[in-house]
Each structure stands twice: as C-alpha cells, then as structure tokens.
Amino acid sequence: MACSRSPSQCDPAPLPPAPPAGRWPLPLSRRRREMSSSKEQRSAVFVILLALITILILYSSNSANEVFHYGSLRGRTRRPNLKKWSLSDGFTPILGNKTLPSRCHQCVIVTSSSHLLGTKLGPDIERAECTIRMNDAPTTGYSADVGNKTTFRVVAHSSVFRVLRRPQEFVNRTPETVFIFWGPPKKMQKPQGSLVRVIQRAGLAFPNVEAYAVSPARMQQFDDLFRGETGKDREKSHSWLSTGWFTMVIAVELCDHVHVYGMVPPDYCSQRPRLQRMPYHYYEPKGPDECVTYIQNEHSRKGNHHRFITEKRVFSSWARLYGITFSHPSWT
C-alpha cells in the first residue's frame, strides 16, 4: 500500500546499533542485580568511613579523660631501687633542725581500714619496732584493735588541719611520733599562707615534736615512680596519689621489712559479696563503703581521683622485691 505521507516519514525506522562483536546486551534482571550490588558496595564503604570518623572523634574527645587502666611497664623500663633513695634529700625538716631517723628493721603499717575492727591486734602492733599510721586515724577508743604506738604518721596536705585541731590525740598521746607531711609544692611552700608555716606556728606549743615535709624533688620522684609502674602519667590521667602510696614508699625507704595490716588485695571488690558492706575507715562506721570508694575512684573519667586498685596492684608486685607482707586480710 502506498504511503500518503512525505517520503522522509514513510522511510522505515532505523534499527538500534548492534552490540560489539562477541558481546550481547545483558538481560534486564541481571543489569538490575549488578546495579543493586554496586549500590550496596558504595553504602558499605560509606558506613565504614562513617564509623572510622566517629571512632576518631570519640577518641580525641575522651583521650584526656579516659577510664584509668593499669598497664605495667616492667620489662620495658628500669625499675628504681626504693631502698637506695636518699632520705636526706627527700624530706625537709619543718619542726626541729634534724634529719629523718635512720632505718628500722621491722615496721608495721596500720591502715585506716574497717577490716581491723574486732581483730585484737593492739598488743602485736605495740610490740613492733616501728609503727606507721596515716592522716587523722585515731587510736583512742580503738587501741584494742589498732594499738597506740605511733613512730611515724604520714599526713596529706588535705588532712593537716584535722590533725592540728586535735593535739591531745595526735601529739600528747604519742609524743614520740615523727610527722611526715606531703602535698603539692604550691600548697605546702607557697610564700603566703603555706601549710609549712601553719605547721610551724602550731609546733611552737610542742617544741619537742619532729615534723618533715616531702621535698619538691621527692614529690616529682613519686610521680615518676607512678608513671614507671603503671604506664600512666599522673597529671594527664587525672590521678591523685593516695596517702597509702606515699606511706608504702616511705616505709620501704625506712624499713628492712614491712607488714601491712588491713589493706585489701586489688581484686577484693570483684570477689566480695554484693550485700556485704564495709566502712572505708574504721573510725567512721557510717562513712562511705570501701568498695564503692575504690571503684568510683578507679574508673572515674572526670576530675582528679585516687587510683586505689591500681596502687594495690603495684604494691603486690613490690611484695617480694621489698619484703612486704599483708594480713587482715592476708594476701601476696
């Protein structure tokens, strides 16, 4: 039949170009599958990149306040011998122009732990050659369990006023006591209103009392020791060294053998029955629970905290090295 339109309109429609030799057009279903697979791959790459970016952001924001984890550096750094630390360089006399007394053969550290209540350890503690106590832990009313004898009392800067306000307890009761005060140099020795001057003024009423302050150089040594033992910089990890840390190191310096009463092992709180409650201090029966105190301080991200559990791990590693034993509870 003849075409009634123009010749160009009557020409047959051109065929699509043929595929290259040896290739045939893919079926529609296969092309859809390949397109879908390509989209999934791109999505997976995007998710991975997003996850990596998120991790980097979280790390950078939390690195300064990370949860404290103990990582011993033993084997990678050379451990100092605490018994060779110089006593004359480490302690500055506050009351009395003397040097810290020479070494004791056998020392006991009486902690402030409520584990000592009911132990009747008083007579054993009284027989010790040298007895070391901490901060404002009293003996009045508790002597049956903790004794009275106090050769050395290690006092934190935060406990100075609590000790000075009770001379009847901490000076008159045991006049032979040698006080060792520790604290940041800016608090202990600042020009105006320093704690050293406060202690000196209070000491005027007790001319026979001996008192020393941990020197700034020795304070730095304590920090360096903490970093070497734990792998953590004290300031960057927002940690405060505890009075127990200072007391243990001082005891190792002063004593040939050290026996510690009342200190729990580092894994104690992970094994203690949950319903059991133990006051943190033997003289504060309604005070905070010891394990709550330990765990909160160990894992806190913000602020400055004592790393009690980490310190106990370090003490455990020192036990054989420095002749330290623990009892009530017993552990090594």
UniProtKB/TrEMBL annotation:
The cross-references to InterPro entries, in alphabetical order and at most eight, read: Glyco_trans_29 (IPR001675), GT29-like_sf (IPR038578)
Q: Which residues cross the membrane?
A: 43-60
**A Gene Ontology BP annotation from the UniProt entry:** oligosaccharide metabolic process
Bias type Pro residues, positions: 13-22
Q: Where is this region: Disordered?
A: 1-26
User: Keywords, A to Z?
Assistant: Disulfide bond, Glycoprotein, Glycosyltransferase, Golgi apparatus, Lipid metabolism, Membrane, Sialic acid, Signal-anchor, Transferase, Transmembrane, Transmembrane helix
Per its record, the protein catalyses: N-acetyl-alpha-neuraminosyl-(2->3)-beta-D-galactosyl-(1->3)-N-acetyl-beta-D-glucosaminyl-(1->3)-beta-D-galactosyl-(1->4)-beta-D-glucosyl-(1<->1')-N-acyl-sphing-4-enine + CMP-N-acetyl-beta-neuraminate = N-acetyl-alpha-neuraminosyl-(2->3)-beta-D-galactosyl-(1->3)-[N-acetyl-alpha-neuraminosyl-(2->6)]-N-acetyl-beta-D-glucosaminyl-(1->3)-beta-D-galactosyl-(1->4)-beta-D-glucosyl-(1<->1')-N-acyl-sphing-4-enine + CMP + H(+); a ganglioside GM1b (d18:1(4E)) + CMP-N-acetyl-beta-neuraminate = a ganglioside GD1alpha (d18:1(4E)) + CMP + H(+); a ganglioside GT1b (d18:1(4E)) + CMP-N-acetyl-beta-neuraminate = a ganglioside GQ1balpha (d18:1(4E)) + CMP + H(+); a globoside MSGG + CMP-N-acetyl-beta-neuraminate = a globoside DSGG + CMP + H(+)
> Could you state a single Gene Ontology molecular function term?
alpha-N-acetylgalactosaminide alpha-2,6-sialyltransferase activity
One GO cellular-component annotation of the UniProt record comes to:
Golgi membrane
Q: Which subcellular locations apply to this protein?
A: Golgi apparatus membrane
Membrane disposition = Single-pass type II membrane protein
User: Record's family?
Assistant: Belongs to the glycosyltransferase 29 family.
Entry protein name: Alpha-N-acetylgalactosaminide alpha-2,6-sialyltransferase 6
Species whose genome carries this gene: Octodon degus
Gene encoding this polypeptide? St6galnac6
